[in-house]
Amino acid sequence: MDAPGWRGPEESLGTSQAKSGRDRLIRPYAVTGGRTAPRMQLALEALVSSATFVGVDPSTLSTEYQAIISLSRQVRSVAELSALLRMPLGVTRVLIADMAAEGLVQIHQPSLDAGKPDLNLLERVLSGLRRL
């Protein structure tokens, strides 16, 4: 029996496996080249948006990069991208940090003063929880 793995973003974006003709199983460490830590600190609630880039042919990018770019056309958090892609959070963080370094996405980090959470953020979370 094989160890559990991650099925590529084609499945998350709705591309059927029958269409691709194969069941793609990828080990998470293979997607990141064995790296487990992102190049930069990346908070779960950090917002990611696609950068406007010129001269980069999207078809030359990896499937994972294409999926992240597609989903981040609408501003989303790192945690949300991870969930939508059905990709482990650590893998998502590494890929997003790499993409930011290459200028493919923009990251909007929350500002925390001396480790204290942003009061505005906490109030918005509380308001959202009350609406549930």
Q: What is the fold's blueprint, element by element?
A:
Blueprint: E1 6-7, H1 9-12, H2 17-20, E2 25-26, H3 28-31, E3 47-50, H4 63-71, E4 76-77, H5 78-85, H6 89-101, E5 105-108, H7 119-131
Explain this structure.
- The strands form 2 sheets. The chain has a 3-stranded antiparallel beta sheet with strand order 4-3-5. Strands 1-2 form a two-stranded antiparallel sheet.
- By secondary structure, it is α+β, with helices and mostly antiparallel strands.
- Residues 1-6 and 15-22 have low confidence and may be disordered.
- The radius of gyration is 16 Å and the shape is globular.
- The protein contains 7 helices and 5 strands.
- The protein has helices spanning 9-12, 17-20, 28-31, 63-71, 78-85, 89-101, 119-131; strands at residues 6-7, 25-26, 47-50, 76-77, 105-108.
- 42% of the residues lie in helices and 11% in strands.
**Tally of helical segments:** 7
Number of strands: 5
How much of the sequence lies in strands comes to 5-15%
> Which residue ranges are poorly predicted, with pLDDT under 50 across at least 5 consecutive positions?
1-6, 15-22
Radius of gyration, in angstroms, nearest whole number:
16 Å
User: Can you summarize the main beta sheet?
Assistant: 3 strands, antiparallel
Q: In oligomeric terms, what are we looking at?
A: single chain
What's the helical proportion of residues?
A: 40-55%
Ends apart, CA distance between termini: 41 Å
